[in-house]
Backbone:
């Protein structure tokens, strides 16, 4: 059976789990080989439990179980040279890169006027400059291939303000600016660049005690159900969050030839959140 | 604006000086801030403000330096007895090339000044608000529609919109309004220089301002090559004043139609 990404190679950052893993597996189901990149470790200022080497290996195993090739790479998106090395090595191994998913991201929270300099800077370094690094390390490989698709995971916070995360909102808006500039620069090479804007996604980034507490300050140790009740109020559709596969499906569409004339688009996958 | 006290960054020239004078003409006292090496021009801004009959305190700091900026704003705000309006105007612009060819220092400088410097300015300034007030972040049309070969600038100016939208949410209950202004091409040294002229007119040897004007005019809906600094200042004044008392979290474009041209 022919897949929608047969013969394609996709480099995905943040691939150890969550949205990145869902993209890796979903793309592999459609015939793509996967370059799976993740930090596999903690980032300062971030309270989300860190991803691990085992998480990244699990992603690779799931891709290989589908009969596709996958290689794991541990790299920090803040390190441009490390990403260049990953891209170069994966081109050697897989013959090229056609699709790039800049998915790696972090979150932390504090009111704008109380946020400290380190939390602000780390956020910009990972969620904005890290995306630029990912594109910068790979674009010339896509040009060499004669075309391609770059899918940047932004957020509803790339389209609207969210309380308590001004650094995150700034960075996620920032990648839209990057996407719009880059799409104009690479269109002549047959490369498309788009952003995806998820509402809350059912991943470790939100399913942890510190985020639950942000959503339910009225509870000492909010349960998942109490969190869901509050999260539901953000969306138009009666759901608290979307699943990683929903973001992977939107990314798959944008990565595939079905979207061959779609570029410079900011696509919300947000259950109506940004219009609520 | 009678009796209002405003902080303006990037006040030594261009749009910043124009904001200072326009706000002063409307009755505001001004804390004018810019880099130390612009001291001479900054003093000229202060003189222009004083010529309107208003008070002007000139302070110098690099908006990337949190502590120095805070100290300078504290000194100036204490002299004025507080602040009511922040105009985060300071910024840097260049067109280095396709995004994957930009060197990391150039990328970083744009984010540091245009984005983090703006956040630093808001933090330093709002600390002196006694009650409500108005925060105006000067973004760019590049904050709405990107400029190719300037992804570092486009990213930073988009990010400023995100910052403003969150700040508007966080500060609304304190009656502090937060909005962005998006100038297109403005007749300031930022674009009126031979480097920009050459970029705009790659086929012309030593292009003049008139050559550049023809190219820029072709990008606008209105038959003008650029807006003047005072046009942006008028928008800033509107957002600073009570005339816009229920306007917050929005983007005001002043661009002669640049972003809407088909």
Residues:
């Amino acid at each position: 059976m022919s897949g929608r990404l047969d013969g394609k190679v996709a480099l995905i950052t943040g691939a150890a789990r969550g949205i990145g893993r869902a993209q890796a597996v979903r793309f592999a189901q459609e015939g793509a080989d996967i370059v799976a990149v993740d930090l596999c470790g903690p980032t300062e200022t971030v309270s989300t439990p860190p991803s691990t080497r085992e998480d990244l290996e699990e992603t690779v195993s799931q891709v290989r179980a589908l009969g596709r090739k996958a290689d794991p790479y541990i790299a920090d998106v803040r390190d441009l040279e490390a990403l260049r090395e990953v891209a170069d090595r994966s081109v050697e191994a897989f013959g090229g890169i056609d699709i790039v998913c800049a998915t790696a991201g972090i979150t932390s929270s504090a009111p704008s006027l109380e946020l400290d300099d380190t939390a602000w800077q780390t956020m910009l370094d990972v969620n904005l400059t890290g995306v630029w690094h990912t594109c910068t390390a790979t674009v010339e490989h896509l040009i060499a291939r004669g075309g391609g698709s770059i899918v940047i995971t932004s957020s509803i916070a790339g389209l609207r303000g969210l309380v308590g995360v001004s650094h995150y909102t700034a960075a996620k808006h920032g990648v839209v600016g990057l996407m719009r500039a880059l799409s104009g620069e690479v269109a002549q090479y047959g490369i498309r660049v788009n952003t995806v804007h998820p509402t809350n996604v059912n991943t470790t980034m939100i399913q942890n005690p510190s985020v639950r507490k942000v959503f339910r300050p009225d509870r000492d140790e909010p349960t998942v159900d109490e969190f869901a009740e509050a999260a539901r109020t953000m969306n138009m559709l009666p759901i608290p969050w979307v699943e990683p596969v929903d973001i992977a499906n939107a990314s798959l569409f944008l990565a595939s030839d079905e979207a061959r004339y779609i570029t410079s688009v900011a696509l919300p996958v947000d259950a109506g959140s940004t219009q609520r | 604006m009678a009796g209002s006290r405003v902080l303006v960054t990037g006040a030594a020239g261009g749009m910043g000086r124009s904001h200072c004078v326009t706000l002063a003409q409307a009755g505001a006292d001004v804390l004018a801030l810019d880099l130390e090496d612009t001291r001479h021009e900054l003093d000229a801004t202060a003189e222009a403000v004083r010529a309107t009959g208003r008070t002007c305190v000139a302070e110098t700091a690099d908006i990337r330096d949190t502590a120095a900026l805070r100290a300078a704003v504290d000194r100036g705000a204490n002299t004025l007895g507080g602040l009511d309006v922040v105009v985060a105007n300071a910024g840097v612009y260049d067109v280095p090339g396709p995004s994957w060819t930009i060197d990391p220092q150039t990328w970083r400088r744009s984010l540091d000044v245009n984005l983090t410097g703006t956040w630093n300015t808001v933090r330093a300034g709002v600390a002196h608000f006694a009650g409500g007030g108005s925060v105006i972040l000067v973004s760019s049309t590049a904050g709405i529609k990107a400029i190719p070969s300037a992804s570092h600038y486009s990213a930073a100016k988009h990010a400023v919109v995100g910052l403003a939208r969150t700040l508007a949410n966080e500060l609304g209950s304190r009656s502090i309004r937060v909005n962005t202004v998006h100038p297109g091409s403005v007749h300031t040294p930022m674009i009126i220089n031979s480097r920009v002229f050459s970029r705009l007119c790659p086929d012309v040897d030593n292009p003049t301002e008139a050559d550049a004007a023809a190219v820029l005019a072709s990008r606008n809906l209105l038959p003008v090559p650029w807006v003047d600094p005072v046009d942006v200042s008028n928008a800033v004044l509107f957002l600073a004043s009570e005339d816009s008392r229920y306007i917050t979290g929005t983007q005001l474009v002043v661009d002669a139609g640049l972003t809407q041209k088909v």
